[in-house]
Design goal:
Distance between the termini: 51 Å
Strand order of the largest sheet: 1-2
Number of strands: 6
Structural class: mainly alpha
Protein name: DUF2225 domain-containing protein
Pfam family, one: DUF2225
Radius of gyration: 19 Å
Shape: globular
Number of helices: 7
InterPro entries: DUF2225, TPR-like_helical_dom_sf
Strand content: 5-15%
Oligomer: single chain
Largest sheet: 2 strands, antiparallel
Helix content: 40-55%
């Protein structure tokens, strides 16, 4: 196995069995760059590939920081809807983009059977889109749209912060996702709201990004209208 990875033993909260999961060593988490929708590119190893833990015994999957702490009703829903037809397989060791996508889609399935919050679904869908981006696959746009719909729903119906996501950053992500899926007029509206927001003044770098993307969205809209 890659020397930047290691295995760790944890308890699966669904089947109550000890399992092993693969993690990335802290020293490997060197950021190379960030895309305008917050997708991180790493220098040595793609940390995102390992962000979902999967129990090979029962099929339960979740982002590693959400793996524990399930309610009893969630455990039952996972057993009844996933575990009953699960074919045992391992997600240990090195992952490529395809294996990571499989793990993330299992996490998304888990969220759906739990009737999880839209903000949780959005977070996973956005990361699946990023994984498709690494593959240069058209699947990226499909999952950007899923993420956009869920973030929009969360913005309207959930209280902030959404996990660690504050309102202004959520607005920025929604705006940028509108731009990336080609709905430029909505992107312009959302970027404008950020720039005009007094609350955004505490995040000058985010305002600068919003201004840049606002202008880009305007240019893209003008180009689309001229064609």
């Amino acid at each position: 196995m890659n020397e930047l990875l290691y295995n760790k033993k944890v308890m699966c909260p669904v089947c109550n069995r000890e399992i092993e999961v693969t993690r990335v060593k802290t020293k490997a988490c060197k950021v190379l760059s960030r895309d305008t929708d917050m997708c991180v590119h790493y220098e040595n190893i793609n940390v995102l590939f390992y962000d979902v833990w999967v129990c090979g015994n029962c099929g339960y999957a979740a982002l590693q920081d959400k793996f524990e702490g399930l309610f009893t009703r969630d455990i039952k829903a996972i057993k009844d809807n996933i575990g009953i037809s699960w074919v045992k397989r391992s997600f240990l060791g090195e992952r490529d983009a395809d294996k990571a996508i499989e793990a993330f889609k299992l996490a998304l399935l888990t969220l759906k059977v739990r009737n999880a919050k839209s903000s949780e679904v959005a977070k996973v869908c956005l990361r699946i889109a990023w994984l498709y981006r690494f593959k240069k696959s058209p699947g990226e746009i499909k999952y950007l749209k899923f993420a956009l719909d869920s973030y929009n729903h969360a913005y309207q119906n959930e209280r902030f912060p959404l996990d660690k996501l504050d309102e202004i950053t959520c607005m920025y992500i929604i705006a940028e996702l509108f731009r990336r899926v080609g709905i430029f007029d909505e992107a312009i509206v959302w970027f404008s709201r950020i720039v005009a927001s007094p609350e955004a003044r505490s995040k000058p770098s985010l305002i600068d990004m919003a201004r840049d993307q606002y202008q880009l969205a305007k240019d893209q809209l003008a180009l689309a209208d001229s064609n």
